[in-house]
Amino acid sequence: MPVNLTAPDPASLLPVAGMRLGIASAGIKKPGRRDITLIELAPGSRVAGVFTQNRFCAAPVAVCKQHLAAGAIRALVINTGNANAGTGDEGLARARLTCEAVARLMGCAAKNVLPFSTGVILEPLPVDKILTALPAAQADLAPDHWSEAAHAIMTTDIVAKGVSRQVQVGGSTVTITGIAKGSGMIHPNMATMLGYVATDAAIAPGLMPQLVKEVADVSFNCVTVDGDTSTNDSFILIATGQAGNAEIADPAGADYAALKAALSEVAIGLAQAMARDGEGATKFITVAVEGGRDRAECKQIAYAIARSPLVKTAFFASDPNLGRILAAIGYAGVTDLDVNALQVYLGDVLVAERGGRAASYTEAQGAAVMKEADIIVRVVLNRGHANATVWTCDFSYDYVKINAEYRT
After folding, report:
1. So what's the pLDDT on residue 5?
2. What would the pLDDT profile of 146-203 be if each residue is shown by its tens digit?
3. 141-161 burial string, b = 16+ CB within 10 Å, else e?
4. Assigned domain for 5 exists
5. Is there a domain that residue 1 lies in?
6. Are residues 253 and 357 located together in one domain of the fold?
7. Would you say residue 155 lies in a domain?
8. DSSP H stretches of helix in 199-339
9. CA-CA distance, 271 to 356, in Å (whole number)?
10. How does DSSP assign 194-207, residue by residue?
11. Dihedral Cα 101, 106, 107, 112, nearest 10 deg
């Protein structure tokens, strides 16, 4: 079961002016499953995205990049149950066919539509089923269907993921709502999953690519479940410009900082929810590395710990076999690291210092922390002022079972 995570109250997911969402059933993988999401954007909306760096990127990712470059996005279409990845030229053709069908319904050009898919890789996209379901999704369009959309984009997720916030920007109340799916095949660069965060703030179009990257870097690029970067990972930032604030055009200004902080808070909530809902997860683990020379080396060490199967299985067993953490630090690739200078903490318990076990540490202390559902691992490098935090979960028997039976 998810670790200290429940689905958001539908009423807590606030409508974003200039957006409507519609849900329908295409029966792509399971009959009757609501697996199509259509999102309509008001004219003038600004959209930017970051995507997987997996070289086997899915057809919809390739099409999204092309259409974003053309600008003026008016609609998004998302299907679950089939990733349309590893499908070659035919996969590209089917993604484009989907965009053309949406464009006819929405009264725009195909290049104004972004397609997204998630599910099984290496199988043809059942485009006929999608095209049949699209009119029902259009008929279902409504501003308050965020919760329904959060459920419709799920695959192996147990809990739908959605977060809303409101913040004052330039004297106007700005609304931010985001949804995401992902619980397995989660590891950055970009990476996660599918994530959509929308705001009604007015933002200069030239700032959108910078803003989406900065938000992704502190959220979705700080989570790992299993170290596998998906073929379909996409994070999309939408700004409809209908909040009434003066357009944000200065990346060094207070309005930009306030909006970025609120967007980051929403995205971090979604990213952490993915780790809490990691396939088979029983523990949510925060790995914080402090006192590094730069953020890159801190993140490098944090990820070495967070993606280690031996570390993650020890957490599942509540076994304070903490030498595995030291081993991960050592092989992280920071070649000039002085292991005698660092400290390792499990929760508030000092575990290691001066190159070995802390004199004050007892096995009982470690065992007590390992039994908790939320655990913090803190590594203090004592070689600078940089820091980085990543989030992960344990590996359980159910992770193997879920992924062994994924196609059945």
Report:
1. 83
2. 999 999 999 878 889 999 999 999 899 999 999 998 754 444 443 347 999 999 999 9
3. beeebbbbbbbbbbbbbbbbb
4. no
5. no
6. no
7. yes
8. 208-217, 254-276, 295-306, 309-316, 323-331
9. 33
10. EEEEEE---B-GGG
11. -80
- 201 and 300 fall within a common domain: no
SS3 category, 342: coil
Residues 291/380, Cβ–Cβ less than 8 Å: yes
Here the tokens at position 133 are: 């379901």
Contacts of 53 (CB under 8 A, 6+ apart): 189, 190, 191, 229
- The strand ranges marked E within 42-112 are 46-51, 75-82
Catalytic residues: 192
Q: Domain tally for the chain?
A: 2
Backbone phi, psi, residue 185, to 5°: 50, 55
Q: By residue range, what is the domain housing residue 125?
A: 10-276
Q: Across the 408 residues of the chain, what is the mean pLDDT of every consecutive 10-residue run?
A: 84 97 95 95 96 83 94 95 93 98 98 94 94 98 97 89 96 97 54 82 97 93 65 88 97 97 97 82 94 96 93 93 94 95 97 96 96 97 97 81 63
The three-point CA angle 299-370-284 to 5° equals 50
Whose tokens are 């919760």? That residue is: 147
* Boundary residue ending a domain (249, 276, 303): 276
Residue 128: its H or E element:
helix 127-139
Regarding whether 309 and 256 lie in a shared domain, the answer is: no
264 residue type, one letter: S
CATH number of the domain encompassing residue 26: 3.60.70.12
Distances (CA, A) of 65 to 53, 105, 115, 286: 12, 22, 10, 32
Q: Is residue 4 part of a domain?
A: no
